[in-house]
Design brief:
This protein has one helix at about 1-20, and strands spanning about 25-35, 40-50, 55, 60-65, 70-80, 95-105, 110-125, 130-135, 140-145, 155, 165-170. The chain has about 180 residues and is mostly beta strands.
Length: about 180
């Protein structure tokens, strides 16, 4: 019986480091919204750029579409490092996770001029996880579903992993307000 108790204690102590490192994290969907169908298929290459104070950095992804509306692909799991373990200074600094994209058409691929990026900071609040974009391409939105939402920040409960939808709008042109 004592051996089983010691084994249980060892398992619990072994799990502590991974639990202690958990910051705000979410599964990220990289999305593009096209207002009209395209004559040629577009290939969007999403690339993880500069990161700072991140436990998990997601991954690069590719999305191919010519359809109007929303198309998404997984950019993986992203988690901020909210502690200064192992000599870091992340407990007092903002996390940064940059995802950029560029697009091509045809074969062989030809750049078509669509590109953009977003810099997202994540943090763990007292009751919620928080994510907000500090710099981003025109029309970019951070949403809780795969629908346009006009938001640049999101909150979600501790213990949940989103998902969050980072929505780019290639060629976005803001509409002029009528007087």
């Amino acid at each position: 019986m004592r051996i089983l108790s010691m084994m249980g204690l060892m398992v619990a102590v072994t799990a502590l480091p991974s639990m202690a490192r958990a910051g705000a994290g979410a599964n990220i969907q990289a999305c593009v919204f096209l207002p009209t169908a395209q004559a040629k298929t577009l290939t969007f290459n999403f690339s993880v750029g500069r990161t700072k104070c991140m436990n998990d950095k997601g991954n690069n992804a590719v999305l191919t579409t010519s359809s109007a509306g929303m198309s998404c692909t997984s950019a993986g799991y992203v988690e901020e490092k909210g502690s200064s373990t192992n000599g870091g200074t992340c407990a007092t600094q903002k996390s940064h996770w940059v995802l950029g994209y560029s697009s091509t058409t045809g074969s062989p691929p030809v750049q078509n001029g669509y590109s953009g990026s977003s810099d997202i900071s994540m943090s763990r609040g007292s009751n919620t996880n928080n994510a907000s974009m500090s710099s981003y391409s025109a029309g970019t939105q951070l949403c809780s579903s795969n629908a346009l939402c006009s938001s640049t920040s999101q909150k979600w409960p501790h213990g949940k992993q989103g998902p969050l939808y980072l929505i780019f709008q290639p060629g976005y042109q803001p509409t002029a307000k009528k007087k």
